[in-house]
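Bench notes, afternoon.
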Amino acid sequence: MKPSHRFNHDHFMVKPNKKVDLSDFDTADTNGIKNKDAAQEALQSDIESLSLAQELLWASAQKGVLIIFQAMDAAGKDSTIKHVISGVNPQGCSVTSFKAPSEEEKQHHFLWRPARFLPGKGHIAIFNRSYYEEVLVVKVHPKFLNGQWLPADFSEKHLDDFWKHRYKEINNWEQSIADHGITVIKFFLNVSKKEQKERFLDRLNKPEKNFKFSAADVEERVYWDDYQKAYAQMLSATSTVSAPWYVIPADKKWFARSVVADIITTRIEALKLKIPSLSKTQLDALAEAKERLLNE
């Protein structure tokens, strides 16, 4: 099914080497989608198209797809993932949530953990948060570097150089996996501080949503400006030709889900994958199997 609406993806993509200022981005932008019903229609058609695209991805077994979601708390990562992959065959898709690293993970390079969850050929891997936490939450709270595997020449006096080095390591790693056939799609769900507050209050006011709330979420709001700066620097430094970032307005969840589904679908369709051709031997085996079934 052809999607009923195609978004201008360049409107959301961070151009390589572009310095990002998040105050320039409208968190309530809907890019021409008039209302929730129109967004839902576009989302549904993209879900159907994504299902077909994933089936071809699985059958061809030529490429892998890595999808990364980063955002402030309550931006809608979980619900976006839930809605977008609702039509995807779970056999060919995995979702990994990255929490604080374990003691074992701290003893390795920070890219050791995500490397174990990369998609194989024909698969989609989704990271709900990712290794980018190492240049976001760890940058806002440098104390989290304690106990981590760090370069021998690490010095707290040169943290700016340290973060630049981590950005470079990330870019090199993503280029390497892209060279090996993995399409990297990265989303930053951009929610406003006002909308985050309303979503927190909604979780507190509705007993059935209490489980979603953590007191630590409110504590982190104190660092809102620091996080905005860290995100802007990360987006500026790590949006590349092979692994671009998309800044998705997230104040309206219905819009964010729709545009994310459209970008993923379009990126997979752009791979121009084909059903593998069978050899004469394989075709002969199929013909024999068919004949046996007909003659039962």
